[in-house]
Structures are given as C-alpha cells and as structure tokens.
Amino acid sequence: MRARLDVLTRVAFDTRIGSPMPATDRPMNFNAGPAALPRAVLERCRDELLDFDGSGLSVMEHSHRGASYERAHRQTTARLRSLIDIPDGSGAQGYDVLYVQGGASHQFAMVPLNLLPAGSTAGYVVTGAWGERAVAEAKALAATGGGDVRVVANTVPSKGDDALRRLPRPGEARSSVGDTYVHLTTNETIDGVQFATAPGASMPDFGPAPVVADMSSDIAWRRVDVRQFGLAYAGAQKNLGPSGVTVVIIRRDLVEAGRADIPTILQYRTFAKHDSLYNTPPTFAIYLMGLVLEWIEGLGGLDVIEARNRAKAAAIYDAIDASPAFYRCPVEVGSRSLMNVTFRLPTPEAETRFLAEASAQGMTGLAGHRSVGGIRASLYNAVEPAWAQALASLMRDHAMRHG
Amino acid sequence: MRARLDVLTRVAFDTRIGSPMPATDRPMNFNAGPAALPRAVLERCRDELLDFDGSGLSVMEHSHRGASYERAHRQTTARLRSLIDIPDGSGAQGYDVLYVQGGASHQFAMVPLNLLPAGSTAGYVVTGAWGERAVAEAKALAATGGGDVRVVANTVPSKGDDALRRLPRPGEARSSVGDTYVHLTTNETIDGVQFATAPGASMPDFGPAPVVADMSSDIAWRRVDVRQFGLAYAGAQKNLGPSGVTVVIIRRDLVEAGRADIPTILQYRTFAKHDSLYNTPPTFAIYLMGLVLEWIEGLGGLDVIEARNRAKAAAIYDAIDASPAFYRCPVEVGSRSLMNVTFRLPTPEAETRFLAEASAQGMTGLAGHRSVGGIRASLYNAVEPAWAQALASLMRDHAMRHG
Fold this sequence. Notes:
The structure is a homodimer.
Chain A: H1 2-13, E1 28-29, H2 39-47, H3 67-84, E2 95-100, H4 103-115, E3 121-126, H5 129-143, E4 148-154, E5 181-185, E6 187-188, E7 193-194, E8 211-214, E9 231-235, E10 246-251, H6 252-257, H7 268-273, H8 283-299, H9 302-322, E11 340-343, H10 348-360, E12 363-364, E13 375-378, H11 385-402
Parallel strand pairs in A: 1-12, 3-4, 3-5, 5-8, 8-9
Antiparallel strand pairs in A: 2-10, 6-7, 9-10, 11-13
Helix pairs in contact in A: 1-2, 1-8, 2-8, 3-8, 4-5, 9-11
C-alpha cells in the first residue's frame, strides 16, 4: 500500500527517483503539529533546494518581488482557491486568501483587534484548550476597550470531572443579534473534538453572526463549504505544510469592516490589498505549502484525500471500540475528531508500555498533549493509510496480550 | 578564490561532497533580501532534508516540543549569544534572545505597543525609507492613545531634492530626557546609509533614552557591542537565514517594563518567558539560521566575516570612485553602507544596459529598489568575495567602454 502511494505521488510530481534512503526507514509520524509531510514533497523540495525554477538559486534566495517567487506565491493561492473552492466575488460574495505569520495564537489577537471595536460584542464557543486560549486573548483585549466578549457555550469538563468531551448540543451555542462574529475551533487538537465530521455534514447553526473559525487542524482534509464562515484561519503545520505561515480565508466585507485605527501590520486589509506581499512573507513556507497542495491534487483532490483520511480514523476508532475494557476514548461518539484520535489505557503505566511498543515498531508522536496525557494519534493528510493500519493492528494485538 | 572558499566551508561543515550541480552554475546573487545563502548551508540542508538529527524525519516534521528540535532551537540561540557576545545577566545587565514572526514591519508595531504606554514619549531618527515606515506605524499607534512620538531627526532628502543621503550630523539626533526609547535604522537597505561603519566604531550618542535599533540588514556581519542598544531586531533574511523569523535582542529590564495590557502574543515577555516556544515557532527558519551561524563560526567568526565584508564593499566603492564621471553614489562618503552599495549611471538607459551586461555575466539582484531605481549591490554575509570582485571588474570595464 505504502509503496503504491509512493509511486502514485512520484508520478504526479514527475520527480527524479533515487532517494539515498529507502522508504522503509521513515518512522510512522503521528505528530500533532508540526506534523508529517508527504515524502514526495520532501523529495521534490530536496531535489530543487539549490535550484528553484531553473534559476540556480534556492527558493529561499529569491526576492519576494521577483518573477520566480511571485509565480509560486500566486500558484499556491490558486491551488488553495481551486481545491477548497474559495469564491472570488466582491463584498460578502467573495473571500481573500491571506498569508499571515504568527500562527493561530496571533489570530487569537488579530481577530478581535480587527473585528471587535469598542461598543461591539462577539460570542465564543469553547470546546477545548485552543478555544479557551482564543477567548482569553479576546477578553484581555475587551478589558482595555475593544468591545465585549461573551462565552456562548463551554463544553470543556472542569478539572477532575471525568465527563466525556463533546460538542455543544443543538441550540446550545448561538450568537446574539448584533454580535459582530461568533468564534469557534472546528477541531480541538488536544481534546480530540471536531465539528461536523459526518460525510457531507454542514456546521451547526450558530445564529446570525458571521462564524470565525480556527481551522488549524481541520483545513483541506476534505471538501468543505467555506461560505459557512466569515473568516477561517489555519496554521499550515498540520494539514498543509511546515510551521511559519497561517492561511486566512476572509470574506471581503469583513476585510473592509475591519478597524483602520490599529497598526498597519495587524490589519487584514494590509494583507488583502498587497496580496500578502506588503512586507517579506515567509517565502519558503508558502512555496512548500504549494507543493503539498500539488501533491493533494495529484492524489485526486479533496474527495480522494477525504476517503483516505476517513479510513485512517475509522481504523483507530474501530480498534478502540473493539476493546472497550482496555481502551477508552474520552470523547462522545458524535464529537470524535477524525484528525486527532485520543484514547486512554487503564493506567498511566499501561500507556507508557503501549508507547514503548509503538516506538519499537517505528511509530512516533503518539504521546498525548502534556496537559492531558494519554495517547493521541494525529492523522493529518500526510499520514499514510498504512501507518494507521499498523497502529490499529498494534492496538488489537496489544489489547490481546495485555487486556 | 571561490573554489578555495567552497573547500573551506565544506571542511567546516564536514558535509558530503558531490553536489549534482557544479559551483560555477550558481548565479552571483546580490539580492537585497531574501538574499544569498551560503552554498555549504544549502547543501547541508538538502542532505539532511529527509533525515534530521538521525531521526529519519525532516526537521519540518519534528514537534517543536521534541528533543531534536528543541536542541536545534537552543543551539541557534547559544550560537547567536556566543558569536554576537550577548550578555546573559539579569535586569539591565542581560538580554533575552527572542524569535518572533512577521519581520521588521511587525516590530514597527510591537515596539511602541510594548514600550510606549499612554503619557510616555519616544524619539525616532529617520535616515531612509524603513525609518519612515517605522515612525509612521508608531505615530498611528500614538494617535489612538499609545503615547507621543517625535521625529528627532530626518535626513531623507525630499522628493526631487538631489542632495546626498546621509547620517545625522553629530548632535543632530538626540532623545529627550524622559523618552522611553529612541528608534533608528542602523542600516537603510534601500537608501544605502549605515551608522558606524568605521572599523571598531561605536554608535553615535543619541542621548539618555535606550536605543531601539532596526538591524535587519546590519546584524552579525561584524563584531558589535549590543550594550549600546536597549532592543535590536532583525529579520533573518539578509545576513542570517531565510525569511520568516525575526531575531529580537532585548534588555531584560525592557521586557519587564513592557505593557501587560496588550494581547499576549504581542508582548515581548511572552516570548522571553517561554524561550520563544509559547506557540509553534517557525522551526525550519530557526534551524536554518543555526546552520548559517555555524557556517560563520566555521569561517572563523565575526572578525573573519567582517574582514571579508569590508573587502567586498571596498571593491565596489573603489570602482565607483575610480570613474566619478560615470558612476555616482547618492550617499555621503561617511554615511555609505557596507551592506547595500547604491550607485547611479548617467542615464536610466545606461543603467538598463549595465544591468543587462551584469546579467549576461551571471549576476542577479542588482536593480535598485523600485522606489528609487539605479543600481544596488547587497553584500550580506553569504555573498562571496569573488562575486564582489567580479562586479567591480565589470564596473571598471564597463566604464572604460561606455564612460
């Protein structure tokens, strides 16, 4: 399976064959982000690292104002627009695609700075640790005069409470009339809670306000209708590329509505007006994201990658549910993330033993976030189906031996 | 000369020999930033792109919380501290080294956000286009209640004025008692104006306030006493690495003095407290900067790189001054930048012809900034002495044929 995929992606890329390292030497990488990148992308990057676009220079050595880099920059945007189907109309009918630095944590500040002027209100839906960080940053800003922030729903169990993690119940999380936006985290990387994972599902109804979504670990793993969002942002380092660049997809009327009395570099309109070339962008990260998007196209696009991703998550959840006395997923069934599968074993010692066995079989990145412990398998786009199958096999075997 | 340097840097790196592309195929890259990177660094990066630290994974695929990346992160900082000699004491006796995203333009906002609370004042010294951008951002912030900003000196000729670009005269640029800082741009990349270029020179006296310096195109090309600065920041993409990371060297009492009522991600203390690992850093850019620093160490450190850099600039300025009727440097002799040598030919047509000849000889990146035109040779650390010699030879030859 793995060998076949390698051949497929190599063909799509038309790269030179002949890596100095056999494919079997690569660990199975389940890191939560920065995460696995497609082998074919890394090989292509390596092969052209000293000679980008036939220039004899590395892509890192090109001016961001030069034709070679600008072509890569525009191509990355064109691929994002085409893959995700991002509308290009004006006002509320169109979206800008921006490249900002600083990660989701920077967006936690940039969103309210732009969209929460004094006298306005916004709602925050909290389903995990990242939503908590987002609302904390917005509240701190509100305290110094940047409008008013309200938590419209928080489903995170309090410390010591053993309740399952979950999404809001229908109707539990609704913005108020007049809110300038409602913010949520579509997939909680640490908690393993994800919205709208059923095939073809839309986001629930959050009321009248535009939805601002942290999609850092949820972007481009399947087809999604971006018209559900006023603004969606995503650090690239999970499904799209390396760390160092954040994709912001923002409705053009919200760009215009943004405050103009904040620093230039913190306004979305600065990035929109200059095609994210107001100042030097993180050129290498944008270039590499373009290669990952090309790789997704080569696989067959979002429909193919979605089927691949669903199969990976199903394999792990099936292994959990096959041994309910041994493995326990701390998330309600309808709220389970397909990107970050979290599970516990009976004791911390059993978890340590499991991680050691996984490591011995060449699996890495499976320890849960240091704040919650347990096991977490992140299954982003570049995680190969064979790795998920291998993990599921280990889980079944391990439960037989130790359960 | 060029071949000898290649051998030297290869030995320092202990990299495998055997690039698929002969050294002579590489263009001579005079880009202003993103700029040339050392060939040995690119080769090392290529060779370990799929296998960092013996892990079988790319450096881009490692968690920023993992041992391998954290070691690279700390090593980059240790190399910066040792090369630049950054004091590690407490309070006003020590400096933190931070990695922030967003480039110098982000610092134009972050500096006054942190250090210019309501009721305080700051002075700005403007010697070129980047200083003008910095003060504009600070003034916009001051207009919404962030303190008061004063231009203490502006030496930029007004549009249409043919006066030479220059540094402030002695005593022309002094902060006022009570200013929280005085900001300046130690090297103006577009204008070709640089402070304190004489061997061993200190910065002029700017009065009592701590000096905040944009050193984006001025860092680590020679030995400098950082104790002259309260805060120095530098986008890496000129002397240190690829775009996507900004080095901030900040006195610890200024970290503490920074406002705490601004967003977490915009406070210097957030980066200082978490060793720039509060959120996911641009791991690849920090790793690559570490390789460039290692390369500088391998060459012999800042003293050796300084001699190399002085020789490059001298070669070009000598060629300009040897044909004063043909080449004209728009900068006063004592203000001339050793990093960005700017010059004009008698007519725009003559400049176009010169650029075409340079291009035919394998030189790239020599067109002046689109806002000013003319010729600009950027001579950052990775620009090889042989390239500067080749450019100087072309200039002399070209002047003979066309002067």
